[in-house]
Amino acid sequence: MKHQPHQLTFLNPLSSHPGRLPAVPGPGGRTLRSLIRHPAVLPGVAVLVAAGLLLVYHTVVTQAVNQSVLQQKARSAQAQALWRCKQLSVVSARQACLRELAAPLVSGT
User: Fold this and answer.
1) Is residue 84 in a domain?
2) pTM above threshold 0.70
3) Domain residues for 77?
């Protein structure tokens, strides 16, 4: 085999031909090359990738909506508690209630 000085080639150890995919028999006696070139392979892969991306998108959006709902509930509960504290007529009770609201929550986990 004669090499030209500016031509790059690579040798595939699985093939007797440099730079070619090996002929690996597939189902029904087809080779890997013929399966890759089959007209249904590219659209099939595209459909699977699109379905996977839609599933990931759905999961992310669902989690964002759930988190938003939880944050809204927490803000609403905080506002209601603050309103109840401010409605107390005894100043010391109102101040104690507001201090309790301002204190950080102690987590049991």
Assistant:
1) yes
2) no
3) 73-108
